[in-house]
Specification:
Residues 1-25 are annotated as: Disordered. By secondary structure, this protein is α+β, with helices and mostly antiparallel strands. 21% of the residues lie in helices and 27% in strands. The model is unreliable at 1-18 (pLDDT under 50).
Length: 238
């Protein structure tokens, strides 16, 4: 459906390198979800963060120095998070839903971009020893928080197992400085939106092709058809 772009580092650490991890730890998803107000899109490093609405889509975004980072898919992420630094027990957990998240396996870490501010207020702490808060604009309810951190980045506090998934070790070196940024070009957004419009408008015909002549569709196109059919069914049964 599209040509791929060259992979590059998604972030530019000013010093040091990421902490080493074992092969078993490396197989687990990256735990670091860093808030970046200068990013105009969300980014997830691992496929396991996505759900059933994941769509294969080859694209690219630009990092802080305009290097191209390969994107292989897009979808929503339901992020299991702690809702407040002062709560404990079952009520201390929640879900932060992120729409239109780019899947970039070569990214340094996961990125929460400025679109977060469309539905939530992000309040930075006035001290590196205090937590920042993410609250719903409509209700003022706390839905997540940013971990106290003496560094220069803001990281969302995830729920640990068994509420949240097992994750790998942090890829962020506390002694390093990072410029974490993701900008998705308008041309790529338009290409994605065009694909969504095409599949929405021609779904019945594409389903017929998938049934009668499945080899006429690429694996990515077949995945799109299945996803759009699932959305239609979910809409009818909701």
């Amino acid at each position: 459906m599209a040509s791929s772009s060259s992979p590059a580092s998604s972030s530019s650490p000013a010093s040091s390198s990421s902490p080493a991890s074992s092969p078993e730890e490396a197989a687990l998803p990256c735990p670091n979800w860093i808030f970046s107000i200068n990013s105009d899109i969300h980014v997830a490093k691992d496929r396991s963060w996505f759900g059933n609405d994941y769509l294969p889509f080859k694209s690219a975004y630009l990092d802080v120095i305009s290097r191209s980072e390969e994107v292989v898919g897009i979808g929503a992420v339901n992020l299991p998070v702690k809702v407040s630094p002062t709560k404990s027990g079952p009520n201390s957990h929640g879900i932060l839903r992120l729409e239109h998240v780019l899947h970039a396996p070569g990214a340094l870490c996961n990125i929460l971009g400025a679109p977060l501010a469309e539905d939530f207020n992000v309040t930075m702490a006035d001290s590196p020893l205090k937590a920042g808060l993410i609250t719903e604009i409509s209700t003022g309810r706390s839905v997540a928080y940013l971990k106290p951190n003496p560094g220069v980045y803001c990281e969302v506090r995830l729920s640990g197992p068994p509420t949240g998934p097992a994750v790998g070790p942090s890829v962020i070196d506390p002694a390093a400085r990072y410029c974490i940024e993701a900008r998705w070009p308008v041309s790529e957004r338009e290409r994605y939106n065009g694909a969504v419009e095409y599949f929405s408008a021609n779904l019945e015909q594409l389903v017929g092709i998938a049934i009668t002549n499945p080899t006429a569709l690429t694996p990515s196109e077949t995945a799109w058809v299945r996803c759009f059919v699932a959305r239609e069914v979910a809409g009818l049964t909701s």
